[in-house]
């Protein structure tokens, strides 16, 4: 860094650490790439519009097995390792579950020595920074690159031209696409270090640059300076910002351009790397697998076909068959508003050649399957259906939990399932135990190693060996101490970062995830008001002190949940300042929930809130992180909750609520919400208080719309599940009053989380989808 150690600032030490760790990883990084090339190993290409890697340096030190020596070295230098890594930005290049899953999977692929590239966009601005003003969410830009990106390398020699717009013409020489413009995709590589450092893969993020010759000199010399720079401006805009929504398909031209930019640059790079060692394109499926992380990269099919046909002279049918063999598609949501559909006109304007290919694929499905495919349409009502396109161009389609995959088969793609039975399979999500236990919860990680020995980090099923210790009071004592330590670490962090005081002796009841009506943060805050009212009604009772911790961002345009954020903060303002109750009930909502905050919050939690309307949370992965860190779950039979409960045992899980089928039935009942409210006095009392402005005295009617909506609509069945949720919460209190019982349940949860390792999930993909043999 060209800095005197004696004069170095924390930032200098952090940049120096990044370069030092990257250097430590470089030999394996080069060796992994060489072995893949020279041994002709098949490699995986994971295409995702989102990656949420979190801070990289401490994780890299752990995976290089250098954490202790790095912190010791800093001690020798009189520098605090924790302060050095605390300054590292948390690249928010994703919205939530989908982006974090991609990061866990990349780390597991490297740990399993599965040759792989992650492909994404290097947004200059990640997901907005969340602030609260007067209890309301305010979004601020996230300039994560200002303090540099020292762990990655820009690859000026690796760049591809990505065409947009223009015309396609058919002549006897075949089809020619004359694009209106081209943008340049420039590569930035970040090493993905496997645990142990023996294998290192690459996360390649593209940023958009104007093609050199794009400054329109004619328009420039004609004085039309803006016109001249238009394409340049557009280029800079393309990889400027991540779309901050994780449920609504906004159908914006820029979003489609970003998706095309990602898939085209990535597929071109996959073909380029293949042709480095191979000639016969028909052998591509033996050397490359491409996984589409939801429909956002679903243009990968048409793009691969385009390149094979237009640039490599392969026949259309051969190209289409090759694409199916190479591609896999993972679906992460059933929400209708999240299923991407692109207007045919927009596709024709931006990607005329791709539209042509999609139309031909649609014809081909009908030619091949005849009337059996009558209900299959890649284009319908003037919209290109990206889900159907992804399925038709993939040899395997998977859901992300057993329940979700069943619903994908039955409700989302029943006609496609019928066409090709067995194409849709389940691969339940997973999480990496390196970041979510070894890094986030060192005290518990050390206790596990002391108790069952090392090695669990890459063989998580070994946690089962903890189970017998659940009967040992000394072990339970030690286990309890790790939770207490995590609570104190959180208290220090909340105080330093947010000036928030945390009562560490209380039951920490945590709900952290994106704000969405189906995740039912509303049910949680309504129950909290009810608990407050009951404490005030009976202050002498033996209430279990609780802290309700919320965390999560709302998509900027999602007003309904922005009201819920405000309600949580408004209720918090009243309850936290109520002398009668504040020692027994508190609400904490630190702004700007992200991977780093999750690493602080999750190890400290006693109770994990996984309370979505059954059938709507595809899987969840936070649920797994909490259980792995010894929190007990209160939840519905939704997503991976179902499988977590099967693993940990019904007696170690606080279940409540309607099942997915009961939800569908209840929605059919007119006035189901009113009926549920009228049956629940506690809920009526809560809605009464909110409606009359108890938490918004300066604007009593602030939440009247929200309350009306509950009485008259309640699509997410908050009212119908309220009493069951309340009874389950009382069971939680009862269990918590018996610390040994609670600890036993908590230890059993930890011991039974082995199958939710992302190593298990990636091995499943390697075997059933990517057909990549485990590395020697
Ligand atoms: C088009 C806008 C958009 C952007 C992102 C639509 C949908 C998404 C994602 C698919 C939403 C998402 O993150 N889904 C979550 O994926 C996780 C990983 O599989 C699951 O665990 C969560 O249940 C699911 O909500």
Automatic annotation (TrEMBL):
Q: Does the keyword Transferase apply?
A: yes
Function as written in the Swiss-Prot or TrEMBL entry: Phosphorylase is an important allosteric enzyme in carbohydrate metabolism. Enzymes from different sources differ in their regulatory mechanisms and in their natural substrates. However, all known phosphorylases share catalytic and structural properties. Allosteric enzyme that catalyzes the rate-limiting step in glycogen catabolism, the phosphorolytic cleavage of glycogen to produce glucose-1-phosphate, and plays a central role in maintaining cellular and organismal glucose homeostasis.
Q: Tell me the organism.
A: Nesterenkonia aethiopica
Return the EC number.
Answer: 2.4.1.1
Please give the name of this protein. Answer: Alpha-1,4 glucan phosphorylase
Glycosyltransferase is among the record's keywords: yes
Against NCBIfam families, the record matches this protein to: P_ylase (TIGR02093)
Q: Which PANTHER family match?
A: GLYCOGEN PHOSPHORYLASE (PTHR11468), GLYCOGEN PHOSPHORYLASE, LIVER FORM (PTHR11468:SF3)
């Amino acid at each position: 860094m060209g800095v005197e150690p004696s004069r170095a600032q924390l930032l200098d030490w952090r940049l120096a650490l990044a370069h030092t760790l990257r250097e430590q990883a470089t030999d394996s990084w080069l060796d992994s790439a060489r072995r893949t090339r020279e041994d002709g190993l098949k490699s995986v290409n994971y295409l995702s519009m989102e990656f949420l890697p979190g801070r990289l340096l401490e994780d890299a030190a752990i995976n290089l097995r250098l954490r202790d020596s790095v912190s010791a070295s800093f001690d020798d230098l009189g520098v605090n390792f924790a302060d050095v890594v605390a300054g590292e930005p948390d690249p928010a290049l994703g919205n939530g579950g989908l982006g974090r899953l991609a990061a866990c999977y990349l780390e597991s692929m490297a740990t399993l020595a599965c040759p792989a590239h992650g492909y994404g966009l290097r947004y200059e601005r990640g997901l907005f920074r969340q602030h609260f003003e007067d209890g309301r969410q305010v979004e601020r830009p996230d300039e994560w690159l200002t303090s540099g990106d020292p762990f990655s390398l820009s690859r000026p020699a690796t760049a591809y031209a990505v065409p947009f717009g223009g015309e396609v013409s058919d002549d006897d020489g075949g089809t020619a696409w004359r694009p209106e413009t081209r943008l340049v995709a420039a590569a930035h590589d970040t090493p993905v270090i496997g645990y142990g450092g023996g294998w290192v893969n690459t996360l390649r993020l593209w940023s958009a640059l104007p093609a050199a010759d794009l400054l329109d000199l004619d328009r420039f010399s004609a004085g039309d300076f803006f016109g001249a720079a238009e394409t340049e401006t557009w280029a800079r805009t393309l990889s400027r910002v991540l779309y901050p929504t994780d449920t609504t398909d906004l159908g914006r031209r820029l979003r489609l351009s970003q998706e095309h930019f990602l898939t085209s640059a990535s597929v071109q790079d996959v073909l380029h790397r293949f042709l480095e060692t191979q000639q016969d394109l028909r052998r591509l499926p033996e050397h490359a697998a491409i996984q589409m992380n939801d429909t956002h990269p679903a243009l990968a099919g048409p793009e691969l076909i385009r390149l094979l046909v237009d640039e490599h002279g392969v026949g259309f049918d051969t190209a289409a068959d090759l694409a199916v063999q190479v591609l896999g598609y993972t679906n992460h949501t059933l929400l209708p508003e999240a299923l991407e559909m692109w207007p045919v006109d927009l596709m024709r304007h931006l990607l005329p050649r791709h539209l042509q290919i999609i139309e031909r694929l649609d014809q081909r499905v009908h030619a091949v399957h005849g009337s059996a495919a009558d209900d299959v349409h890649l284009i319908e009502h003037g919209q290109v259906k990206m889900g159907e396109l992804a399925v038709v161009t993939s040899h395997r389609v998977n859901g992300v939990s057993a329940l979700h995959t069943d619903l994908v088969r039955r409700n989302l793609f029943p006609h496609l399932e019928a066409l090709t039975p067995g194409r849709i399979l389940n691969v339940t999500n997973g999480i990496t135990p390196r970041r979510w236990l070894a890094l986030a919860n060192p005290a518990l990680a050390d206790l596990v190693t002391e108790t069952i020995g090392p090695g669990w980090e890459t063989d998580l099923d070994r946690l089962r060996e903890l189970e017998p210790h659940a009967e040992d009071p000394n072990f339970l004592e030690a286990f309890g101490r790790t939770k207490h330590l995590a609570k104190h670490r959180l208290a220090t962090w909340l105080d330093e970062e947010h000036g928030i005081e945390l009562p560490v002796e209380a039951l920490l009841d945590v709900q952290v995830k994106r704000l969405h009506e189906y995740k039912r943060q509303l049910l949680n805050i309504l129950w909290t008001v009810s608990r407050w009212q009951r404490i005030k009604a009976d202050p002498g009772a033996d209430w279990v002190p609780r802290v309700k911790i919320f965390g999560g961002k709302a998509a900027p345009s999602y007003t309904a949940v922005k009201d819920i954020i405000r309600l949580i903060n408004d209720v918090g303002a009243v309850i936290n300042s109520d002398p009668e109750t504040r020692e027994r009930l508190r609400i904490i909502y630190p702004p700007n929930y992200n991977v780093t905050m999750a690493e602080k919050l999750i190890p400290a939690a006693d109770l994990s809130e996984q309370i979505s309307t059954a059938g709507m949370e595809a899987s969840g992965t936070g649920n797994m992180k909490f259980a792995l860190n010894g929190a007990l779950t209160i939840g519905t039979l939704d997503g991976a909750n179902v499988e977590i409960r099967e693993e940990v045992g019904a007696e170690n899980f606080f279940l409540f609520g309607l099942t997915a089928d009961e939800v569908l039935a209840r929605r059919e009942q007119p006035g189901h919400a009113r009926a549920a409210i009228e049956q629940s006095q506690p809920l009526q009392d809560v809605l009464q208080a909110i409606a009359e402005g108890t938490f918004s005295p300066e604007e009593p009617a602030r939440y009247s719309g929200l309350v009306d909506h509950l009485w008259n609509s309640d699509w997410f069945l908050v009212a119908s599940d309220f009493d069951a949720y309340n009874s389950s919460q009382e069971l939680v209190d009862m269990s918590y009053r018996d610390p040994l019982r609670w600890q036993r349940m908590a230890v059993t949860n930890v011991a039974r989380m082995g199958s939710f390792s992302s190593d298990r999930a990636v091995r499943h993909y390697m075997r059933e989808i990517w057909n990549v043999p485990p590395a020697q």
